[in-house]
């Protein structure tokens, strides 16, 4: 397995939230979605810990596909389900199936990952790993942010 497909330690992925990673499509996958980065060549996916591993899904809702579920600080998770706060859809963290909400029965777009030697590894041949964190987005200015201390 290529070192550049290792993303982060599995222990750093929460079960009560999600972690964003940036990927690049290298296979036949949709890019016309809300998780697309500014240049259209990067996509976001969100990782969530399960009782027996890690799940990974593209970061767009099945209701309105231009809506990101994790807006950068981790998606809300309630009772093992990922919440899209836009209209309240719940998705099972282990399957991606929407159990409640306007897209009930739809399934999040899964990305294959595995845990090897304690690290989360991108095992999906349709994507390449770019970096931890969100894709550069057209609606977010790059560079530093000023925190509440003013620094
Ligand atoms: S956009 Fe996610 S529930 Fe409507």
From TrEMBL:
Keyword set, alphabetical order: 2Fe-2S, Dioxygenase, Iron, Iron-sulfur, Metal-binding, Oxidoreductase
Keyword Cell wall biogenesis/degradation carried by entry: no
SUPFAM superfamilies per the UniProt record, alphabetical: ISP domain
Pfam families reported in the protein's UniProt record: Rieske
GO molecular function: 2 iron, 2 sulfur cluster binding; dioxygenase activity; metal ion binding
UniProt feature coiled coil, ranges: none
Name of the protein this chain belongs to: Ferredoxin subunit of nitrite reductase or a ring-hydroxylating dioxygenase
């Amino acid at each position: 397995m290529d070192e550049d497909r290792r993303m982060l330690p599995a222990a750093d992925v929460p079960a009560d939230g999600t972690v964003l990673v940036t990927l690049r499509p290298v296979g036949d996958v949709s890019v016309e979605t809300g998780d697309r980065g500014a240049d259209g060549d990067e996509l976001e996916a969100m990782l969530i810990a399960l009782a027996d591993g890690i799940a990974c899904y593209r970061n767009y809702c099945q209701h309105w596909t231009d809506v990101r579920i994790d807006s950068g600080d981790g998606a809300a998770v309630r009772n093992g389900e990922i919440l899209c706060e836009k209209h309240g859809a719940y998705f099972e963290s282990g399957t991606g199936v929407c159990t409640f909400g306007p897209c009930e029965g739809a399934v999040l777009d899964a990305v294959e990952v595995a845990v090897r030697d304690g690290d989360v590894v991108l095992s999906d041949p349709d994507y390449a790993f770019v970096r931890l964190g969100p894709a550069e987005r057209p609606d977010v200015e790059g560079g530093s942010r000023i925190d509440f201390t003013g620094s």
